[in-house]
């Protein structure tokens, strides 16, 4: 019988990849901030269009960059062995920070719409974004209950872990899709009536489209890192993951 060779992913060095990904995440935040500051008038809390500008900044920072960092926390070399509880706490804290920023981002866009009499929740971007945030909130509550509460049974953790991993990647993909669709929607609404039309590709359109590509690249690299076998924490029954029992002397 002919046996097909097993194709494995190349074993990439983690540290250079991590530096690249961290720089890319900071670049995404810098780009969305520069876009809103330079072309959209800056930021305020007065209900004007400058209040809306907090929405893309907070969403990209929270639901893409911070959420991506939370997803990769277990890929750090110190997190691949030894006690897992501290890394669970860091993972949960980063995800919670991302959720808080997302809620503030939603509050900014709802305040802007209500102040100007603009209908809420009518576009595909708004539907997708709200579904993403709601799914993320369910994901965080379920993960906290299953993995951080001490009374969660072992069988429940084992059952829910692959579900948690699957929906974690799903939320990241939905976040990227929400941000990219939001950028495109904002350009269509803004680049008209006295400004250079979107179809003529003014500097703002080039800059914002580049931001969208950077966000997509960040999401793809995070998913690639999650799929890298050599960066995964060993299973609970692996010798590398066994914790040394601590003996207390009386």
From TrEMBL:
Question: Which Enzyme Commission number(s) are on file for it?
Answer: 7.2.1.3
- Membrane topology of the entry: Multi-pass membrane protein
InterPro entries associated with the record: CYB561/CYBRD1-like (IPR043205), Cyt_b561/ferric_Rdtase_TM (IPR006593)
Q: Which Pfam families does its entry note?
A: Cytochrom_B561
Q: Where in the cell is it found?
A: Late endosome membrane; Lysosome membrane
Molecular function terms from GO: metal ion binding; transmembrane ascorbate ferrireductase activity
Membrane-spanning parts: 12-34, 54-77, 89-112, 124-151, 163-183, 203-226
Which metal ions or organic cofactors does this protein require, according to UniProt? heme b
Q: Provide the alphabetized UniProt keywords.
A: Electron transport, Endosome, Glycoprotein, Heme, Iron, Lysosome, Membrane, Metal-binding, Oxidoreductase, Translocase, Transmembrane, Transmembrane helix, Transport
Region span, Disordered: 231-250
Catalyses: Fe(3+)(out) + L-ascorbate(in) = monodehydro-L-ascorbate radical(in) + Fe(2+)(out) + H(+)
Class of enzymatic activity (EC top level): translocase
Top-rank taxon, per record = Eukaryota
List, as start-end ranges, the regions of compositional bias called Polar residues: 239-250
Please give the GO cellular component terms listed in this UniProt entry: late endosome membrane; lysosomal membrane
Q: Where is the Cytochrome b561 domain?
A: 20-227
What does the record note on quaternary structure?
Answer: Homodimer.
Provide the function of this protein: Transmembrane reductase that uses ascorbate as an electron donor in the cytoplasm and transfers electrons across membranes to reduce iron cations Fe(3+) into Fe(2+) in the lumen of the late endosome and lysosome. Reduced iron can then be extruded from the late endosome and lysosome to the cytoplasm by divalent metal-specific transporters. It is therefore most probably involved in endosomal and lysosomal cellular iron homeostasis.
**What is the name of this protein?**
Lysosomal membrane ascorbate-dependent ferrireductase CYB561A3
**Which source organism?**
Columbina picui (Picui ground-dove)
Q: Which gene encodes it?
A: Cyb561a3
